[in-house]
Write a structure and sequence with these properties.
Blueprint (H helix, E strand, L loop, with lengths): L1 H16 L4 E2 L5 E2 L5 E4 L13 H16 L3 E2 L6 E17 L5 E16 L7 E12 L4 H25 L3
Helix pairs in contact: 2-3
Length: about 170
């Protein structure tokens, strides 16, 4: 009886982890034939250019795939390939008060991403991703922007990673 229960448990577990592609505990579902990924530099084409944003964003996207998948990075033409551009980096007032001043300002970043999956074209896409963080208007953006940019970049990379390889 115990032997049959063990066998049933083993079969159940193997069925749980079987499916399309490779499953990782990060939630990534990648075609088994995919071995490489590439992330081209995302140029900053926004009207307001933050000098380090292009490198910071491109590096963060590369790091996510290196750290959360078993794919090898290649400079171009990866099995999973990302390219695009930063299209917006802007601040705007939000939460206008009765005296017509803003209680909060919003830092927004938008990236346009072209993703190519060489093994499953139905997973390829071109999409814009936007994230923002509101901050108190009495704070100087220059003194807090590095932290805000890092947080927004992390949110953007999460969204892009999830759309590209997480099938929830």
């Amino acid at each position: 009886m115990k032997k049959h229960l063990s066998l049933l448990l083993a079969i159940a577990l193997s069925l749980c982890f079987q499916g399309c592609g490779i499953y990782s505990f990060t939630g990534a579902s990648i075609p088994p034939e995919a071995k490489t990924f590439s992330v081209q530099q995302f140029p900053n084409n926004a009207l307001l250019v933050e000098p380090l944003l292009s490198d910071q964003f491109s590096t963060a996207l590369r790091d996510r795939f290196m750290n959360q998948t078993s794919l090898q990075m290649t400079s171009v033409n990866g099995d999973l390939d990302f390219e695009g551009e930063i299209t917006d980096y802007s601040t705007s007032p939000v939460a206008i008060q009765s005296d017509q001043t803003a209680a909060l300002n919003r830092l927004s970043i938008t990236v346009n991403v072209r993703f190519t999956n060489k093994f499953d074209d139905s997973k390829s896409f071109e999409s814009k991703f936007t994230q923002y963080i509101d901050y108190p208007s009495d704070q100087d953006l220059n003194s807090i922007k590095d932290g805000l940019i890092a947080e927004i970049t992390e949110m953007l990379v999460d969204n892009i990673f999830n759309k590209a390889v997480v099938n929830w």
